[in-house]
Amino acid sequence: MALDALPSGTDKRAAVRAMFDRIAPRYDGLNRLLTAGLDQRWRRFAIDSVRVGTGDVVLDLACGTGDLAEQCAARGARVVGVDFAGEMLRGARRRAVRADFLQGDAARLPLRDATATVAVCGFALRNFVELPPVFTELERVLAPGGRVALLEVDRPRARVLRTGHSFYFDRVVPLIGGLLSDRSAYAYLPRSTVYLPPGEELCALLGKAGFTAVQRRELLLGSAQILTGEVPR
Ligand SMILES: C[S@@+](CC[C@H](N)C(=O)[O-])C[C@H]1O[C@@H](n2cnc3c(N)ncnc32)[C@H](O)[C@@H]1O
Questions:
Q1: Which residues sit with their C-beta closer than 6 Å to ligand 1?
Q2: pTM of the full predicted structure?
Q3: What's the number of domains the chain is made of?
């Protein structure tokens, strides 16, 4: 299934999985290059926002090559990363990180109820087929009092910023990504923001899934966002 047509349903699931399997070998290097290292700083903000530390059991949802898992493990947490793309997981397992990496789908997590104290998810929301089943799964696997932090890209709202951001995100990123990795994947990645509901709707969906104290914070003038919430005790 090609990515040009912005697929949906099972077509999207298969296309996204195949795409990440293809780009896995160069995924980390391109992230650092295309964001000048900001991606790692944003991951740190996400982990800070849910106070990950020793004693936590962290689910890194759609963990990819394990950047968030690595940062959480470095803070003394026990970490389980879940992703459906085998090649991304292969990258994660190659790191010397004290974490378990499992292959599985975000909408049917291979974890028992109430097993994690924290769930984090980096840059994956727009890749899921549907968000409500994923948020319901997050609520299920988190223990009472559990915290969630979802990091995702966004587009600035102010017109001038939006134009400058769009030039970089929609033109420069596909160009560099196409030269150094996979043309169709790096054309798709910026376009896939159309799958993302507006911030207020994302917050409402988390609320519907049972999370309280839901908050949304913008990063770099609206180029990225972190959503946080808690499972009631
Ligand atoms: C943009 S990458 C982000 C990887 C990592 N979280 C990070 O911060 O770099 C998105 C990841 O979501 C995974 N993914 C997308 N849909 C998924 C699903 N339904 N179940 C599990 N993983 C999924 C992809 O395989 C990919 O590794």
A1: 16-17, 20, 62-64, 67-68, 83-85, 88, 105-107, 122-124, 127-128
A2: 0.96
A3: 1
